[in-house]
Specification:
Helix content is 26%, strand content 30%. By secondary structure, the chain is of the alpha/beta class. It has a 4-stranded mixed β-sheet, with no helix packed on it. A 3-stranded parallel β-sheet has the order 5-6-7, covered by helices on one side. Strand 1 and strand 2 form a beta hairpin. The longest helix has 17 residues. The chain is elongated, with a radius of gyration of 22 Å.
């Protein structure tokens, strides 16, 4: 008689144990001691003791942590990331003209750096998707391509909305 091998548990990328999870519809409550299993970039299981059903994966002790969905930044201007601190204390209507001309002249490499810096800041704060109101006057295809490539490298889901306006 030959022994049949036991089925192997499914593989996971990450296993968060004993994590708090907000549940409910109109009245949200926090459920403690849940396990969240991430496999192939998706939540594969979310239940008490779900970790026991999965093998491998990076184990994270979730005690004291709260599992939330990714946040969406619905309005950013990626190229302005490199112009923070210019005209400190200026009102918006004075700050914008002070930075726009220099933003319009940003080379492709600086655009890539600006997008990556903004993407890292957003990812560190739980943002997983962004709508970038991208501005260059005149609009340049190499600038758009640099921004798109940087977002792709960052892993952040991004939509680039090209801003249009009259020339001054």
């Amino acid at each position: 008689m030959t022994a049949c091998p036991l089925p192997r548990p499914p593989k996971a990328d990450f296993v968060l144990t004993d994590i708090a999870v907000p549940v409910g519809g109109g009245s949200v409550t926090i459920t403690e001691s849940m396990d969240a299993v991430i496999a192939d970039g998706r939540i594969a299981a979310l239940a008490p003791d779900a970790a026991k059903q999965f093998s491998h994966g990076i184990r994270i002790d979730g005690r004291g942590l709260l599992l939330l969905p990714g946040l969406v930044n619905a309005h950013t201007h990626s190229c302005e990331t490199l112009r923070r601190g210019i005209e400190p204390g200026a009102a918006l209507d004075h700050w914008i003209p002070a930075i726009w001309r220099s933003i319009d002249r940003l080379p492709r490499q600086d655009i890539s750096i600006a997008v990556m810096l903004g993407a890292v800041e957003m990812l560190k704060r739980g943002v997983t998707a962004v709508l970038d109101h991208f501005r260059q006057v005149p609009m340049r295809l190499d600038a758009i391509n640099a921004a798109a490539a940087a977002y792709k490298r960052s892993g952040l889901r991004a939509t680039i909305a090209i801003m249009l306006r009259d020339m001054e």
